[in-house]
Amino acid sequence: MKDSTKLDQFLISNSKYFEARDLNILSPSIERAIDTKWPILRSITFKDPTLMLVVSIFAGSLGIDRFLLGQTLNGVLKLITLGGCGIWTIVDWFLIMGLTKEKNKQDLIAVIN
């Protein structure tokens, strides 16, 4: 399969997991990595921002959303304080999708570099 077709396939199938500006910036790096790392790129499972929002709404006061993002310390603090008495939980409802996309970007950069 031609590299540009692989790049298009990757971008189409994973666009909801990233900010559009991040994909535009990372596209050249992804294209360079396709030759050697295509099987790895296809097998990465990214976290779904919408699902993380649902988790945050229903279990955010227990810190589950932060644990799923790999932020163990924040998860423990959120659990102990019951979501910062609810304030941290509500703030996370607005931030969690962006945090999830940032985590996905970091995971992708780790693979392509």
Automatic annotation (TrEMBL):
The chain crosses the membrane at residues 50-69, 75-96. It comes from the Bacteria. Keywords: Membrane, Transmembrane, Transmembrane helix. It is found in: Membrane. It is a multi-pass membrane protein. This is TM2 domain-containing protein. Pfam families: TM2. GO terms for cellular component: membrane. Residues 47-94 form the TM2 domain.
